[in-house]
Amino acid sequence: MDIAIIEVFIILGLTIFFFVTELFPVDKIAMFIVVSLILLGLVSPEEGISGFSNSATITVLALMIIAVALEDNGVIAWFAKGLQRLSILPLLLLIPVFMFITAGISAFISTTAVVIIFIKIIFQLAERYGIAAGKLLLPVSFAGILGGSCTLMGTSTNLIVNSIAQNRGVEKLGFFEFAFFGCIFLVIGIVVITSASRFLPAKNASESLESDYKLDELITTLTINDDSPLISKSIKNISFLNTPNVTLLKLIRGSDVTNAPGKYITLAQGDRLVVMADLETVEQISAEEGLSKKNTEQSKENEEENGEENPESEIHLVEVLILPGSTFIGNTLNSLKRFKLEGALPVAIKKRKNIRNTRERLIRKDLDQIRIKPGDRILLEITQAELNTLENLEGIVILRTHEPFEPKNKTRKYITLAILLTVIGLAASGILSILASSLTGIALLLVTNSLEMNKIYHKVDWQIFFLLAGMIPLGVAMTNSGADIWLSEHLLMLFEGKDNLFVLGALFLITMVLSGSISNNATAVIMTPIAITVASGLDLSAKPFILAVMFAANFSFFTPVGYQTNTLIYSLGIYKFKHFFIIGGILSIILCVAGTLLLATLL
């Protein structure tokens, strides 16, 4: 084996390891790949940055920009709004209807953007009508993926596979060329998930935030009595306020409320300290420090009776979900103050689940030092006056306690919808490529003032862009070193004497398993060249093999890792890993068998 092939396999192995363990964000991993390939001489510097100008990468970026306009101008919400009228349907009908509508929209719009909107809609239905969110979120995510597999522009994976295949001399895929197969897979998915819905958790998202975050026994208001030794002491000199067992959330002095008070503030008689601590600690410090205890509900009632609250200063508990691409990612909770939210007080954070931590982690201590990741949920205490500011921040979703932002300009909504239909029409008819039609759509959005450049900078998920740009050179390195040919030859030796149907099915299964461990796009970059070489070695058409890679990379339903929307709904804390492994695993196996049999007709 050539040394270059060994180096490629080492980089490939490390890439898979870092993806699985999530030691670094995916965009950082992608950049490490580019630098490593260039330094080892596996690709030239020009080839190393070729991913940034690759047609598939730019097409994905363009479609994400269009999705920003669709979401910002209310088009996706408008599509989904009618679903609230369906709340009267029994669950066995509601699930397939939700899945069908989600899939239909996702065939032409970014799956992630669609699912994010549906998360909002489902939480509203759960709160208003008592519908269990756990019965709908996973089906909607799966349907979005299945719907995206029906058209060439449906998912970034489809575009990546098509681009790599074209670069290797394979005839490009048509816009609706594989829609027939995609629709069959969608029907199978709807039937399987609806049948398995009885095993989905019946958790209702409308439970109180205080209960969900276990705050009732933790947040207490302590009033300083006239004989308290704390009078005239500064916060920094009070020992119990500087221990990990007690967190001072705010100081109330008359009608003035100070969130996260500074350590140099001097306390006075009658001051109220809102602290977070366990009941045993509260009882101890109350007795020792001359404090009288009130729970949060009593405090609120007293404040209302005394007329101390006004609409602008009324405090709300708000739960927000951090989305991929959010400007908060990588920052600490203390950084909220840099985003025009000086009055927002982080009360608790639920860290998203992942492969290393399959249990949700609720954190309530040392919050300022916690770094934010995509999928984290943060409980904020915030004033009414700042709720609108919170709503307009990019990269977050308010899950509970507030209505989603409604765009005021309806004209832009219809203009944006018309532009979307134009983009689809130009691409589907073959008049323009998807890249050309999507860039044309962006130009029209900018000309009609339906999209602003600052929205593009802030709302596009740049992690996906950098992931694609970084993974494409890895595919180039596999070709340059001969690693793809080496792998293909050994696969052919392994499958020697086996039926072509078996080889196709094995390729489908290998791709699906790999996609369940790393991202779907990374899997597509790795497996597409191998699939083409295997087809060539068998003297067969490459099309069924590249379609097998494309579908299999999308269909890794058995883990929440392979696809971004699955990771998002997993992070909400409703599902356990077993729901994906069992229900998603059954669906993946059925789709693997069905896909192999259907694609074999093209051999």
Task: Please outline the helices and strands.
Layout lengths: L2 H19 L4 H14 L5 H4 L6 H18 L2 H7 L9 H16 L4 H19 L7 H12 L7 H12 L11 H18 L12 H4 L6 E6 L22 E7 L2 E4 L12 E5 L2 H11 L1 E5 H10 L9 E8 L22 E7 L9 E3 L13 E7 L3 H5 L4 E5 L9 H20 L4 H14 L5 H7 L2 H20 L1 H12 L5 H16 L4 H18 L5 H12 L9 H7 L6 H23 L4
Antiparallel strand pairs: 1-4, 1-5, 2-3, 2-4, 6-9, 6-10, 7-8, 7-9
Keywords: Membrane, Repeat, Transmembrane, Transmembrane helix, Transport
GO molecular function: monoatomic cation transmembrane transporter activity
Organism: Leeuwenhoekiella polynyae
Task: Describe the structure in brief.
The protein has helices at residues 3-21, 26-39, 45-48, 55-72, 75-81, 91-106, 111-129, 137-148, 156-167, 179-196, 209-212, 279-289, 296-305, 387-391, 410-429, 434-447, 453-459, 462-481, 483-494, 500-515, 520-537, 543-554, 564-570, 577-599, and strands spanning 219-224, 247-253, 256-259, 272-276, 291-295, 315-322, 345-351, 361-363, 377-383, 396-400. With 603 residues, the chain is of the alpha+beta class.
Characterization of this structure:
By secondary structure, this protein is an alpha+beta fold. The protein contains 24 helices and 10 strands. Strand 2 and strand 3 form a beta hairpin. The protein is elongated. It starts with a helix and ends with a helix.
The total strand number stands at: 10
Structural class: alpha+beta
User: Residue ranges: pLDDT <50 for 5 or more in a row?
Assistant: 295-312, 402-407
Query: Widest sheet: strand order?
Result: 3-2-4-1-5
Number of helices: 24
Compute the number of structural domains.
Answer: 3
